Amino acid sequence: MFESSPMPAAELLAPAHQFPGASGVRQVGYPDGLPDEPCAGPRQYATLYARGSTASLAAIADYVLCVARRAGVGESAGARLRLAVEELAVNAIVHGYRAHCGWLVLIGSSDGRGSAAMQLRDTAPPFDPSAAPEPEGLDLPWRERPVGGLGIRLALSSVEHYRYRRVNDENRSTLIVRRRGQET
User: Fold this and answer.
1) pLDDT tens digits, residue range 27-85?
2) β-pairing verdict for 161-167 and 115-122
3) 12, 15, 95, 134 — which has fewest CB within 10 A?
4) Model confidence over 138-156: pLDDT tens digits?
5) Contact 131, 109 (CB under 8 A)
């Protein structure tokens, strides 16, 4: 399986930059090239295409945080969105694609009223994270708990809205965050 190296944040945020095929990550057409500029109205941001490899996770995290900054949701909400997207991406890479090569597509957007949304698409076998069973052993001390399931619960509880759909052989997870109370 082809592994790509992580892309530095500065390269990820370059406007309209096509990453070389060897990197496994490419971003198409950033709207204004200003990564920290919040938008005043609804906007869909550039789409990020990332190889289904753990080496793409740094670029994915940078993209998600950039979308959150542009949406003006604050650092805490941005971190929650990054955590949730990263967990779902890792799940698709490790459990969905396994040793097979695949791609992740991320589409970020904002409603212009303080919300950031991210849609994560993959072509791994169908899997709805919101339908996953509750992790076992939550009443046990953490060292005695079986491994698995906590990441999905943490990811879904960190966002205000989550929706899963299977469309045209794609898993589509849509996550929305807003600034909460006194968050920065």
Assistant:
1) 544 433 444 445 556 677 778 888 888 889 999 999 999 899 888 899 999 999 999 99
2) unpaired
3) 134
4) 788 878 877 777 889 889 9
5) no
Sign of the four-CA dihedral 7, 91, 80, 72:
positive
CA distance 59 to 20: 14
3-class SS of residue 3: coil
In eight-state DSSP terms, residue 126 is: P
Is the CB of residue 131 less than 8 Å from the CB of residue 71? no
Place of tokens 């957007």: 109
* Pairwise CA distance, residues 18 & 41, whole Å: 26
Q: Could you give the C-alpha distances from 48 to 22, 66, 94, 140, 148, in angstroms and in order? A: 15, 12, 19, 40, 28
Tell me the C-alpha distance between 144 and 88, whole Å.
25
**What is the distance between the alpha carbons of residues 63 and 35, in angstroms, rounded to a whole number?**
10
**What Rg value do the Cα atoms of the chain yield, rounded?**
16
